[in-house]
């Protein structure tokens, strides 16, 4: 039996080699798929955990992603009411915009093939992990409408260094705007954005650029006071929010 088997294999060396190659290729494909899926899952989990506060305030009926595109806003008074809650140790008003794109030093768009181009105001809010959501890693915080910080990956891809003039494509108005890069930031616990680009203004700067200078906010984030549960803070926040907004546990 062994002699017949080896004789047949030796007589068909090409078929044997192709069969072995097909097996190796198939195993490699399956293994690669599992590795890629695990890496992607880990990246998204890191983003969610590293950027979600104990309580999140957003327009009612909007999920976390579409809330970035919602035109409803909180007033400065609404945020002040949230800051007055005894159940909260930290409250910040968020100002976010989508479709703010970075043009690299080579004149080419950075990203734009699916992952969003996001802009936020800089703040010191901490996530449910206890770590700061936006961490300044180099340089200084931006001030005013003509200064920004970029996430580390975007700055690297775009070929920008601190002090450079950066070209942005805003969602409306001017075709491009020129701003100065003052710092680099990490977003979330891992720093990964899975292809998204992050442009950071200070609060007054992003309000002036995209909200006609109005003191308004697209949402808010809250951290619970010691001994207070997320559910208790959520209920307290919903009691003072306008009808078009809602608070949810992180």
Descriptive tags:
alpha+beta; eight-stranded mixed sheet; 6 helices; 250 residues; elongated; four-stranded antiparallel sheet
What this model shows, in words?
The protein starts with a helix and ends with a strand. The radius of gyration is 25 Å and the shape is elongated. It contains 6 helices and 14 strands. The mean pLDDT is 84. Strands 4, 5, 6, 7, 8, 9, 10 and 11 form an 8-stranded mixed sheet that branches. Strands 3-13-1-14 form a 4-stranded antiparallel sheet. A two-stranded antiparallel sheet has the order 2-12. With 250 residues, the protein is of the alpha+beta class.
Quick structural gist:
The protein has 250 residues and is an alpha+beta fold. The protein is built from six helices and 14 strands.
User: Helical region count?
Assistant: 6
The structural class is: alpha+beta
Low-confidence stretches: none
Indicate the mean pLDDT.
84
Total beta-strand segments: 14
How many angstroms does the end-to-end distance come to? 66 Å
Give the proportion of residues in helices: 25-40%
Give the helices and strands as they follow along the chain. HHEEHEEEEEEHEEEHEEHE
Largest sheet: 8 strands, mixed
Strand content: 25-35%
Shape: elongated
Radius of gyration: 25 Å
């Amino acid at each position: 039996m062994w002699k017949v088997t080896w004789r047949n294999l030796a007589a068909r060396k090409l078929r044997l080699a192709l069969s072995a190659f097909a097996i190796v290729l198939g195993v490699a494909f399956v293994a690669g798929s599992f590795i890629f899926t695990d890496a992607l899952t880990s990246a998204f989990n890191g983003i969610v955990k590293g950027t979600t506060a104990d309580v999140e305030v957003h327009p009612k009926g909007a999920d976390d992603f579409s809330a970035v595109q919602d035109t409803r806003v909180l007033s400065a008074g609404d945020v002040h009411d949230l800051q007055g809650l005894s159940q909260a140790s930290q409250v910040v008003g968020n100002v976010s915009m989508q479709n703010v794109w970075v043009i690299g030093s080579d004149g080419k768009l950075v990203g734009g093939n699916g992952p969003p181009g996001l802009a936020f105001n800089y703040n010191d809010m901490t996530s449910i992990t206890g770590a700061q959501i936006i961490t300044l890693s180099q340089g200084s915080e931006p001030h005013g409408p003509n200064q920004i910080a970029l996430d580390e990956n975007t700055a690297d891809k775009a070929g920008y260094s601190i002090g450079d003039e950066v070209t942005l494509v805003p969602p409306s108005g001017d075709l491009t705007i020129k701003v100065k890069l003052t710092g680099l930031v990490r977003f979330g616990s891992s720093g990964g954005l899975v292809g998204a680009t992050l442009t950071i203004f200070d609060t007054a700067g992003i309000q002036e650029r995209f909200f006609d200078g109005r003191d308004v906010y697209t949402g808010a984030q809250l951290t619970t006071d010691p001994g207070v549960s997320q559910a208790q803070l959520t209920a307290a926040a919903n009691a003072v929010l306008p009808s078009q907004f809602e608070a949810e546990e992180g």
